[in-house]
Amino acid sequence: MSAVVPTYSFLERDRRWSLANELMEARSLDALLVYGDREGAFPAFYAPDTWLTNERPGSIVVFPKGEEPIAIVFLTTVIEDHIQAAATGYRSWIRPENIYAGKMGTNVVEIIEDHGLDKCKIGVVGLEPYPPYYFDGVVPYNTWKSIVEDLPDACFEMVGSDFFARMAAKSAEEIAVLKWSAGVGEKICAAMRDATRPGVGEHEIYAAALDTAARNVGYCGQILLGSGLEFVGWGQPAWLYRPQTPRTIMEGDVVLSEVFSSFGMLETQHQPAIAVGNVHADFHDAAALARASYEAGVKALKAGTVFSDVVEAMRAPMRDRGCWQVHPLVHSLTPYTMIGAGERLADLPEMAHYGKVLPFPSMGTDRVLEAGTVFALEPNCGIGRRMINLGGTVIVGENGGIELNSNSTRLMHA
Questions:
Q1: Which CATH architecture has domain 10-167?
Q2: Helix H or strand E encompassing 276
Q3: What pTM does this model have?
């Protein structure tokens, strides 16, 4: 990690606004309407608004072509923070007169009418699927209903895919922010390993992770975590959502986790798998196969490669052994638009007892990779009821992937 905390310049602002205007020109649009999900959930899972504003997430942005974007924020507290930032010398990308409070469709309509756009063609970001959380889009029903009913002469067009394609390849300033986030993630994984030993509760490992994030000027709003002599689950620790006692770590356990390290709204992902003492041979076999899949993915992540070839490269090492996968093998980061699933997702006998279970789809497999695009490589391999997940964050390079972290890309040992 650099000793200097990275920030964004006005050159970065102008680059992003220029890309947005290029999109409007290419699609013959008069404006963009960009929906940002609320803060308070890591800090927001869907936040294209911040790419244009460099402010708190959770606004609706109206961006008239050739003008400056307008942010409709959810509460006056955002405006108060904007005032406070100015008092400390920070120069915001968004001028005060372009910030409105009241994140409602009626305010969107008023701004569109005030700018003479009520009979124009407007591109919308927020209506298209955005897995893994928003398979039907993210804009609330009543917000969208107000907009389309009160602007009957406007033409709305979904442009989320094109918008995210333009923001996918990171600039030098963004890569500096990503590297900071990845450095924090490395330290989090090391702290989790150091905290893991027989007799320790899962909550103590979790606490070490969160403490390390904050102490190193990072953010980690959630961690997926589980442990056991056998383990097939994947998600937040059960004691976060269900009243129960955290599990105590035992000799022979494997602790599996996914760390979401974030800084400045750019996220890196880390997949620490920690062996506690002597673990079953199946865990070592699964770790070797997952590592081979990771290496294949890194090698394949080069500019000009079709994403489906990356997915196939990562599937191949595990195919002959007949491993199953607990979640996808690889996906893009900031934004989530390309996802590569394994061939035997959740292939457990118990699945036959459940209702209709739709498979997690691969997405964006026909995309040609561009240098600077960011991916989370998270190869996971289940052998029977013993599963290993490892990996980290990799940037597409001209000749192969550029790895941003290392300690979680192999089986770690407590």
A1: 3-Layer(aba) Sandwich (3.40)
A2: none
A3: 0.95
